[in-house]
Write a structure and sequence with these properties.
Length: 406
């Protein structure tokens, strides 16, 4: 009776232990049409996404890769690389979107691997009722050869974890997560040819797109966050050799897709954000039309954080006084065009920078942001970043947002 109780206690403890330390659901060996990837701590998101896909009549499952330390959601498992690539290319062509990629995996769990090749058992010779020694030797060799072949087939799956292939199209997938909650967020990123400082593309996170080869000898790519609500982050890598550090938590490569991963932190009280994409006409507190995109981000930031208050700082290149073109009056909403109705004043560089900060504030008001949520300050050329005669002098002309209350 005591032995039974001890065994029962052991089983209960084992059950409790297994619940406390659950083993991740490992991927089987094979090639997969992968639709999403999640961090080790985000299994619940993988489960939810599988349910979402099944709710849309898409067959889906998920499993854990012990080599990549990630959960993968996949729709189809294939027996060979060629079959997987062909199927996924057909899907991309059909939809016009690179929504999936190929991932090959070799399971560490023997029960998860493909079964070995079936081998016929050796049988006695029918003529004399004894085992034919020559046939036995041949069949024994066949058994060993076929078993080795079966193992090699499984091991070849791991060869998929190779640098990016440039025989066909190359894709970039940008992942962004809230550093505090771990939840995925959708924000814009700039993809830049780092050597030439030219923009290749602007793309949202949580999605992939075809990545053009940079037109430079170094082939260096920079991925830079482009949302003023989050602290700026960037990551650089080489187009042909994306995986520089295999232990990197920022960069990964699966099949024909390079992943760049960011943990984003919202801007906080006391921090500054420069609106580099807000431009002004010469000697004017009137903005150019291409400024509207970044201004809309400020509006979204203010609306999504109702307690947020800011100071808008204006800066100029140099301290010279001169002509100032400004809005005619408070109800003048022609923020982006120079016209004959605007006022023409004269004043200091400090006044010009204050007028420029003020027009940004008035744009926010026109979009429904209360005037008591912002202040303006003009600094003129007192806080220049570069010498006013240098090649970088244009960066002295800027507007900055300071968070003073959140």
């Amino acid at each position: 009776m005591k032995k039974i109780l001890l065994v029962a206690s052991f089983i209960v403890c084992l059950a409790i232990s297994s619940k406390a330390n659950p083993t991740p659901k490992e991927l089987p060996s094979g090639y997969f049409m992968v639709l999403a990837a999640y961090a080790t701590s985000a299994e619940s998101y993988a489960i939810k996404y599988v349910k979402h896909l099944k709710g849309n009549d898409i067959e889906a499952s998920y499993g854990y890769s012990n080599t990549k330390k990630m959960y993968f959601v996949y729709s189809v498992k294939y027996a060979s690389k060629a079959e997987a690539v062909s199927a996924i290319n057909s899907e991309r062509k059909r939809t016009g979107e690179p929504k999936a990629w190929v991932y090959g995996y070799k399971s560490e769990n023997i029960t998860n691997q493909e079964p070995p090749v079936a081998v016929q058992p050796i049988v006695p010779d029918e003529d004399n009722g004894e085992i034919d020694r020559e046939k036995q030797s041949i069949k024994a060799d066949t058994v060993q050869t076929e078993e080795v072949a079966a193992i090699e087939i499984v091991e070849k799956v791991s060869e998929e974890e190779t640098p990016i292939s440039h025989q066909g199209k190359t894709y970039l997938y940008i992942e962004a997560y809230d550093a505090k909650s771990g939840k995925p967020i959708v924000i814009d990123f700039n993809v830049v040819d780092l050597a030439r400082k030219t923009l290749i593309a602007t793309a949202p996170s949580q999605g992939s797109f075809e990545l053009a080869e940079p037109n430079s000898s170094s082939k260096m790519i920079q991925v830079l966050s482009n949302d003023i609500g989050w602290q700026k982050q960037s990551f650089d890598f080489k187009y042909y050799e994306p995986i520089i550090d295999p232990m990197s938590i920022f960069l990964d490569n699966l099949g024909d897709t390079t992943f760049v991963k960011f943990e984003m932190t919202p801007i906080r009280k006391g921090q500054f954000v420069t609106l580099y994409q807000v431009f002004f006409y010469k000697d004017a507190a009137i903005m150019m039309g291409k400024s509207e995109y970044e201004l809309s981000q400020v509006v979204e930031l203010m609306k999504s954080n109702p307690k947020l208050k800011i100071v808008i700082h204006g800066h100029t290149n140099g301290k010279s006084a001169g002509k100032i073109v400004a809005l005619k009056e408070n109800d003048d909403l022609d923020f982006f065009n120079i016209n004959g109705d605007h006022r023409e004043l004269s004043g200091s560089a400090v006044k010009l920078s204050a007028e420029r900060a003020s027009i940004v504030g008035k744009f926010l008001e026109s979009e429904g942001i209360s005037a008591n949520r912002y202040e303006v300050k003009g600094w003129g050329g007192k806080k220049m970043l570069y010498d006013k005669h240098s090649k970088q002098a244009r960066y002295n002309v800027r507007v900055e947002i300071e968070v003073v209350e959140e």
